[in-house]
Amino acid sequence: MKIKILELRDEGTFIPLLAVDMNPEPAALISRWYLRRCGYACSGLPNIAITRLDANGAAFSNDPYFWKGRTWPIAHQHILQNWNELKDGDVIDVSYILGETQEVKLSERFSTPGGL
Known about the structure:
Blueprint: E1 2-10, E2 13-21, H1 29-37, E3 48-52, H2 71-82, E4 91-93, H3 94-97, H4 108-111
Parallel strand pairs: 1-4
Antiparallel strand pairs: 1-2, 2-3
């Protein structure tokens, strides 16, 4: 499985995300067995589950239609469609995805004291 940490942004929103591609590495037979047993296809196509990075008890789902509101479903769909291009720390800016703003928000890593 591949894991990426992403920054979910929207109007007034900052949520660090954990995104997991629920496809095991080819040699990971035990992981493949358990994932298949849970119903994951393990087909190699992106099958991305997301949750809050702070693990505060929020949901963890691979279904973009699971989420309520606008921020989470739009972000999840964007992550699915762009998984291979995304890298750790990328900003998933829902306002930008929807065309409400002209530029992707700057990561808080670069705009807060003590950031990178």
